[in-house]
Amino acid sequence: MAIVVRSSSRALSLREPHYHPFRLFEDVDRMAMEMWESWTPSEWRSDFFPRLDMYEQKDELVMRAELPGIKKEDIDISLEGECLTIKAEKRQEEVSEDVKSYTCERCFGQYLRTVTLPFPVDANNISATFENGLLEIRLPKSAEVKAKHIAITIK
């Protein structure tokens, strides 16, 4: 697992909290099927899109992403400006030619997820752990966004 930090221009993102990008494809397919009987749904697979939770805890942002079947060495995390990207690849096992398959439903390929962070983070102190298919990334708030207590004397 690697964490890379880069300064760059801002990437576009959808800020709706529970928005799932592949839902757009599903909605377009549904509308097209209603209009044209011959419409074949697109092959976009939402299985390749890691689900994640993101929440603020004290002085840090915590992200947890589900990456089942992924090996730690196949995960790449990068930060460019205010956008965090998680890339991972789920590789298919080698199967001998004499194997007869009856069902093949698992998905293989590359996962990709980019999230715009809600506030600036301390890029030098980001940490990540990966256990049992769950990636946890801890992003400490940068010093300028941490709440400061200032005592004010009343005259």
Walk me through the structure.
- The protein has a domain of 90 residues: Immunoglobulin-like (Sandwich), CATH 2.60.40.790.
- Helix content is 9%, strand content 34%.
- It has one helix and eight strands; from the N terminus they run βαβββββββ.
- The strands form two sheets. A four-stranded mixed sheet has the order 1-4-5-6, with no helix packed on it. A four-stranded antiparallel sheet has the order 2-3-8-7, with no helix packed on it.
- A hairpin with a 2-residue loop joins strand 2 and strand 3.
- The N and C termini lie far apart (56 Å).
Q: Average pLDDT, to the nearest integer?
A: 78
Unreliable spans are 7-19
N-to-C span: 56 Å
Tell me, briefly, the overall form: flat
Question: What class do helices, strands and sheet pairing give?
Answer: mainly beta
Helix content: under 10%
- The count of β-strands is 8
* Oligomeric grouping of the chains: single chain
Strand content of the residues, in percent?
25-35%
Q: Which topology of the domain at 2-9 and 49-92 and 106-143 does CATH recognise?
A: Immunoglobulin-like
Please provide the ordered H/E string of secondary-structure elements. EHEEEEEEE
- Report the sheet with the most strands, covering strand number, pairing sense and barrel closure: 4 strands, mixed
The CATH class of the domain at 2-9 and 49-92 and 106-143: Mainly Beta
Rg is: 21 Å
Could you give the order of strands across the largest sheet? Answer: 1-4-5-6
- Please identify, by name, the CATH architecture of the domain at 2-9 and 49-92 and 106-143: Sandwich
- How many helical stretches? 1
